[in-house]
Amino acid sequence: MKTEAKLQKLNEIFQKLERVVVAFSGGVDSTFLTAAAVRALGAENVLAATAVSATLTDDEKAEALELGKQIGVEHVLLETDEFGDETFTANTAERCYHCKKIRFEALTEWAAARGYPWVVEGTNVDDADDYRPGSRAVAELERVSSPLKEAGLTKAEIRKISKHWTLPTWEKPSAACLASRIEYDLPLTPERLKQVEEAEKFVRPFCKGQLRVRHHGTNARIEVEPNSIAGLAEPKTAATIVEKLKMLGFDHVALDLSGYKMGSMNRGIK
After folding, report:
1. Alpha-carbon dihedral angle through residues 1, 10, 32, 135, given to the nearest 10 degrees
2. 227/259 Cα distance (integer angstroms)
3. Which end of the chain is more exposed for a tag (fewer CB within 10 A), N or C?
4. Contacts of residue 240, Cβ cutoff 8 Å, sequence gap at least 6
5. d(CA 183, CA 142)
6. In this structure, are residues 73 and 112 in contact, taking their beta carbons and an 8 Å threshold?
């Protein structure tokens, strides 16, 4: 199916939903989804909601607020309580399932109470290529819809249309929540997520493209794109990074020579 036909299908999906709350992170997919919803339904029938907890960085929250203004949609920040649920904080391989279930059950209830019968989220067809237990939670909830996936839109198509619509996120690197940096079965705490946030903020100026600081208890493993590895390994830079990350509580700091890999913590999961 051509991209134009997929866009038409997306518009038809929104027309059937009539009024929606968009689960809005400020990433490539959710920003495009919000803009598409506004185009299809009008801003008066669309509400963007961003979940706020220790899994969201301060920079991500600020970016989401600014993007909401640019799109011209009403935007709310909703405090979430997944850290009060042991099925989430245990950080098993099902972590994302529990997080999505907790958040979207609360969000659909919140939306319905305000006259929005549907919550929409930004899964696209390419997301099936990675381990995403959160998608199962979405599928289990009757009032949560995944319009981009239903319309058959790929990440590349979403970026291309976003560029045409002059959305600033069209070339934004793919992102994942801070919890994805924590090694499975290492309990999730706000303190550990803050360690990762501060570590990535410090390392960011020394590299380009994707960056992840993976949390392995007392060890930090830095993933960057291959062309940034040599720069981080330069002795003076490496010493500076090691000093800072040790101040944040890590005993050992490693640079992963295989480079950044999306979902690298999922290796070995079937």
Report:
1. -90
2. 9
3. C
4. none
5. 31
6. no
pTM exceeds 0.85, yes or no:
yes
Q: What per-residue confidence (pLDDT) applies to 133?
A: 81
Q: Which residue has the tokens 């009024």?
A: 19
